[in-house]
Design a protein that fits this description.
It is built from 10 helices and 5 strands. The chain is an alpha/beta fold. The chain has a 5-stranded parallel sheet with strand order 2-3-4-1-5, sandwiched between helices.
Length: about 200
C-alpha cells in the first residue's frame, strides 16, 4: 500500500470507498513506522514479558489536530474497530463527547459526569472533540476537574481504554500543557492538513 496519509483521507471522504482491510493495513504500517509492532501495538511487549524481559510502556492514546472538515472525526470512528482488530481494545466501539457532556455546573458533579462518560467507553475508544475547551475558563473552572478525572481514569484503565482528543493545533498544545499527566499519556500527535484545491475538486 503506497498511499500517503492525505490520499487515504481523501479516499475515506470521497465517493470511492476504501476497504476496512486496506485501512487496517495502513494503520498497522503507521504503527510499525513509529516503532510499534504491525501485528498489534502490544505484541512485542507480550513476547518480552513471556521471556521475562523488561517491557516498555506504550500509549494507545492519540491527539488529532487540524481544522474543521479535515477528517478527524471520520478517522476516529474508523480507529476503534481497527484497534479491536489489533487486540488493543476488547469491544471496539466509539463514544463521542465534548465539554458539554463532561463538565457540570456545580462543585463535585463534574468528576461524576466525566467518569460516567469514560466508563461507557471502556473496552473501546472515547473521542473528546474540541478537548482544549476543558482547559479554558481559568483555574477555578470545572473543566480542570474534568481533566484531572480524565488523567486518573486513563491511569486506572490503561489496558481497557483508548482516548483520542481532537481540536485546533495551537489550542490542543495548550490543552496538553495544562497537566503533566496529559503530556506523558498523549505521546503521539496526528496532524490533519487542509485539503488542497485539487483534492476538493476530486471529492
Amino acid at each position: 500500500l503506497d498511499l500517503d496519509q492525505r490520499e487515504v483521507a481523501l479516499h475515506m471522504r470521497g465517493p470511492i470507498p476504501i476497504s476496512s482491510e486496506c485501512l487496517i493495513s495502513l494503520f498497522a504500517q503507521t504503527l510499525a513506522q513509529s516503532g510499534r509492532p504491525a501485528d498489534g501495538p502490544d505484541g512485542v511487549q507480550q513476547l518480552r514479558a513471556e521471556h521475562d524481559l523488561p517491557t516498555i510502556e506504550t500509549s494507545r492514546h492519540l491527539v488529532f489536530t487540524g481544522n474543521p472538515g479535515t477528517g478527524k472525526t471520520t478517522v476516529a470512528r474508523l480507529l476503534s474497530p481497527i484497534y479491536r482488530t489489533l487486540d488493543v481494545v476488547d469491544r471496539g466501539h466509539l463514544v463521542e463527547t465534548d465539554r458539554a457532556d463532561l463538565v457540570a455546573g456545580f462543585v463535585g458533579q463534574t468528576a461524576t459526569k466525566t467518569e460516567a462518560v469514560l466508563e461507557s467507553a471502556l473496552g473501546g475508544t472515547v473521542l473528546i472533540d474540541e478537548a482544549y475547551a476543558l482547559a479554558r475558563g481559568g483555574e477555578n473552572d470545572f473543566g480542570r476537574e474534568a481533566i484531572d478525572t480524565l488523567v486518573k481514569f486513563m491511569e486506572d484503565h490503561r489496558d481497557d481504554l483508548a482516548v483520542v482528543v481532537a481540536g485546533y493545533p495551537n489550542e490542543m498544545q495548550e490543552f496538553i500543557d495544562t497537566n503533566p499527566g496529559l503530556q506523558s499519556r498523549f505521546a503521539r500527535t496526528l496532524e490533519f492538513p487542509d485539503y488542497t484545491t485539487d483534492e476538493l475538486v476530486r471529492i
